[in-house]
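Morning. Coffee machine broken again, so started the prediction first thing and wrote up yesterday's gels while waiting. Chain of 690 residues, entered below exactly as on the submission form.
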Amino acid sequence: MPESPNSTPPASPAPSSGEDHGRGLIRNAGTVGIWTIASRILGLYRFRLMAQIFGATGVADAFNFAFVFPNLTRRLFGEGVLTSAFVPVFSDRLAKGQKDEANRTASVLLCRLFYWLSLGCIAVIACAEAVRWIWPALRPMDKDDLLLIRLFQVMLPYLIFINLAAVMMAILNSLKHFLLPAFAPVLLNIAMIAACLFVVPIVGSTLHEKIWVLAAAVLIGGVLQLAAQFPPAFANGFRLTPSLDKTDPGYQQVMDNFKPVVLMVAIFQINVMVDNLIARYLISGDGPVTYLNMGTSVYQLPWSIISLALGTAALPMLSVFWAQMKKEDFVKTLLVALRLVIFLALPCTVGIMLLSDDIVRLLYGTGRFLENNGEPVRRTAGVVMFSSMGLLFFCVNSILARGLYAMKDMRTPTTTSRDSVAINLGLNLFFVVAMPFLVKPLIPMRAALDSDRKVIGTLLDVLIAMGGMKEAGIALASTISNAWQTWMLARAVRRNLGSDEKLLPSAWNAVAVFGGNAALSAVTGYVAFLFVKSKPDWEGFLTLIAAVAGSLIPFWFLSHQYFLKHIPGRPGIDGDFTVDRYGVKEEMWPENLKFEYAIYSTIFASAILGFAVWAIRDSLPPEGGLIPVMQRALVPVVLGVYVYFTAASGLMSREYDELKGAFERRIRQAMYLLVFVSAGIAFSSKMGWI
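Came back before lunch.
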């Protein structure tokens, strides 16, 4: 259970409205999101350059695998559990006016983190050297294996810089400064892109020699990210006092929060390493590690924009509200974050799944990545599709975990992560190792099956395809395990709040009602689609109309009846239906119905988006050169976004209204960013870089 503050908090103003919480949260998240978009776009461009130069070769696999460990430690010691344990303590002292104590705690954390990471880095490098000598006794070491170990040793110090930079980001976010922390990750991508464009072409004659340029760029990017944090931190009142005093009360409190979870989170990070080991050594051929990393980087673009931006902005606010025991404000802020996450993540999931192949061709379809008749594109697209299925769960987990950290409940995220890791590992082995053997006898059965047995043939095709998923199976395993964790985290938040239905809605009720409505409506839509398709004279546009009508009308009717039954007042009579949702004033809506309406409107608008993207994609020219690929990947995205927000506006979505109000002042910034990115793409195309 969460701890209570040790002292009585000072008097504070009355809680503000949920809309005020939403505006403040969205405003801060917008600052993070703008630069996160820039960082992720540059990151995808960096992957494209690497795909063009190194392709899906053993050299690319060695680099991506060697970079996994130092990058993952950031989630453990940097922007993950450690900073989540640190921000509530730091924010609590700032809220109580104890700025000197907060600075002292941050200084001790930074110094001790630097000390232990440096020692650990030296020890791990020594262990890697020992592995290099022992390895030949266990199995033959090829040139790529040796390269992997050497790259790992050289890039490992990156973890020191990136973890210290992540703590500095947490300090700045707690001081209500979000711009520089959001911009800092851009520097790594700039360093690596510059290396690919200007240094790689003139250094070395083989891929094994050229890859060292990128290793050096990783270290330079880490140093730049750390150095960029100090000037704004000092300008906002942070004072670094070198100290290793582990008796500092704030540091001890951070460690008390951190210790219960460090082992389990370490196991989780090891599990990610095991995923890459499974991809490298249990999937035959070159490229699976590259496919896995490049594929997951696609869903990380919306994930970072949505959950990372909102979670980064929400954690300090949630920590302050919990420290001051303002439960209602805490819940309102948490629900605003969850509603916005669902509103933004679900349509991204639908769009990415439908356009996975076209997106991969646009992002990575160049140079060596088109070898073997485009096999790298197809296999990466499989990872994109199955990892994007879990986008909603990844985003919601990020918000729920931060809510629990703000409550100072570190144990629940740990135990759920532990169980999720076990599920994920078991599913990985099932999809990658067991499934191919299980479906092998089905292949001759499928070949001998009569052509008129379509249902059985379709089922066998699905099973055989699952047996050949390879690295896509790893992505699907992650999606399933994260879905389970979402459920457990939601239950824990309700438990810590006392399971007050009026204070926090039941996730089960919303999922059962609207998930059930959506499933039933999908079945009716599919039946209508098959019926129309079976009529030769009705084929064509009518099949789309039948699928849309058969899916959307039942879902709307069932959900409409639900709200008419549960909403307070007299819907459609006591107010103006065109202004107030169901004719009921905003202040009359309880929090649970607001949350449920968010799920309903998001599912409805996402379904409309899905049908629009489906129709637009199939009407565009087939894949070919760069222009057709851009059309198939970008045109459905642009029109799909327009359709989604138009549908959300028509449904009077709160999330649409909140985002529109908060971002009206940021549209100009987004336009500047769009112009900058477009100019960069045009210039790169003219120079032959893409």
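Residues 517-652 form one domain. Going to sketch it on the whiteboard this afternoon.
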